[in-house]
Amino acid sequence: MPVPAYVLCLLLTSALSGCVQQPLAPVTANCQNLLAAWQAQRRASGVADAQVVPVDAAGLFAVDRLLASLKPAAGAPDQQREWLVQAWQLAFAQRQIEYMNMAPAVAEAQQQAIEACAQQGLQAQLAAVATSGVPPTIISQARVDDSYSLWRRILGVYPVAKMFVLPRIRAEQEKLRAQFQHTQLPASTRWYLPASGPRLSAAAIAQLLAAASNNNALGLPQLPAAALAQLQQQFAPGWAIATESRNDMPGQPIWLPSPQGVRPDVDEHQPSQYFRASYTRFEGQLLLQLNYFIWFAARPAEHWLDLYSGALDGLVWRVTLAADGHVLGYDSMHQCGCYHQFFPVDPRLRARPATPGEEPLLVLDEALPDALQTRLVVQLSAVDHAIQGLAAAPQNMAPLTTLALQDYASLRSLPVAGGRRSLFDQRGLIPQSRRLERWVLWPMGVVSAGAMRQWGHHATAFVGRRHFDDPFLHEELYEELYEAPYEALDEEPWETPGPGLGRQSPE
Fold this sequence. Notes:
Layout: H1 5-12, H2 29-45, E1 53-54, E2 62-63, H3 65-69, H4 77-101, H5 108-131, H6 137-140, H7 150-155, H8 158-179, E3 189-194, H9 202-214, H10 225-235, E4 238-242, E5 252-258, E6 261-267, E7 272-282, E8 285-299, E9 310-321, E10 327-334, E11 341-344, E12 362-363, E13 376-380, E14 387-392, E15 400-407, E16 414-416, E17 419-421, H11 437-441, H12 473-477, H13 492-495
Parallel strand pairs: 3-15, 4-13, 7-15, 11-12
Antiparallel strand pairs: 1-2, 3-4, 5-6, 7-8, 8-9, 9-10, 10-11, 13-14, 16-17
Helix pairs in contact: 2-5, 4-5
């Protein structure tokens, strides 16, 4: 019996963005033709940027997981207008990157014509909000699919395969717990710190966040550039890295010539970490998150059949700020989405218990420094770049290297011979960084497990479904905070840091 077409469509949604795409936004016939030609050009070029997902066939609006979760209901025209502007801005930034990455780059006259039509499409959608109480179709049907492959899980007999994977995950988590805060810094450790600057108090940060939320119809605490830059600098972590080779030195991703054309590498002579802001939903509020990315040239092989070795490696460190200006917690992962770890700083924060058959959270809460009070330093091992501890930056460190803070968006368009090219491909992956472990873990549904990937494509659980950029992640994984305010908490945790105490004394 033939399989109905609608069933095939449902099965394919894990690999495609949907069987039906939204029609072109209301524009003139000339603009429709121009925009359709542009979409065909970008698809054929191989440079389509994957960080956000186009909503309409013209690519005038795009969403990420956050914006897709903030779809305003009917009767909220100010929120609808803000949503449309945010979606338009995401698509605008995506187009600018693709213009540069084309070979040859898109001519300025063509860019201007496309952007004039894009403005026309935005104004048409804003006008529709003003004349109708119903959200535009672009809003109501916006979505971002998850990063898991359904057909891989079906063919890999996922319910059975996960029974073999879960014990390995638990064993690896126990190993990381045993190492955390109990590993001495080796003599080969190199220290990296961002430039110092003035620090804001929790009250000052709370005031900035409240003003930003109140000025945004969706409640997003999107800070002005100057204020965000100050927080970016204040909470940027330092790194203490055991160093055996250049592969343990954080640097700037670059493209280099190779027999296959070009290959990605990391210039360790340009010590850098990259930054982008994100947001999470927690207890009815939208909270600001500060994300920091470091890159290494490789994870070297430790033996002849090392499943995890390969070109490029790196980590993401994230600071989540509560609305009161305090640090709610940290979390971290490798650039592949692997080894997602949680560090609850607020002493009232508790992880929800894992259900049977679910991948447990790796929660590490022993003697955590508070990045509001001090520069936090993340201690990494050599070769595999595992987090082994967190500490406040000591007063005197030698030798010390200053880390430049750069915009994560710059990785979407890097210089290459003859033009520019994204570090990531159209799937949001860096294919040159693939690992042998992908053959072992393919039944888990994570495409090219172990490969480095772009923001928005980090699946962080092999058993179950989790995404690093899921705006509901903290809400789903943590229990609600206790009602008691900070002042009502026992003062002892501030005086005697230890396991599970969360905050250390600011003294």
